[in-house]
Amino acid sequence: LWRFGYSARLLKTNHFRTAASNTSFPAVWMVLAQYSGRIPGLSVVVKKNSFSTMPETVEDKANLELYSPHPEVRGMTVLNREAFKRTVVVPVLKVKKEIVNILLKSLKHMVLQRPGLKRVVEDLEDEDSRLVILDPHKIPEFSLAESEREVLKQLNVCPEVSKYNLELTYENFKSEEILRAVLPEGQEVTSGFSRVGHIAHLNLRDHQLPYRHLIGQVIIDKNPGVTCVVNKTNIIDSTYRNFQMEVLAGESKLVTKVKENNIAYELDFSKVYWNPRLSTEHGRIVELLKPGDVLFDVFAGIGPFAIPAAKKKCHVFANDLNPESYNWLLHNCRLNKVDNKIKAFNMDGRDFLLGPVREELSKELPLLKEEQKTSFHIVMNLPALAIEFLGVFRHLLVGEPCSTAGLPTVHCYGFSKHDNPTKDIQERAEASLGTSLDGRCSTYLVRNVAPNKEMLCISFQIPADVLYKRPCP
Question: I need a labelling partner for 402 at 20 to 30 A (CA). Which of 29, 265, 278, 442 fits?
Answer without folding.
Answer: 442
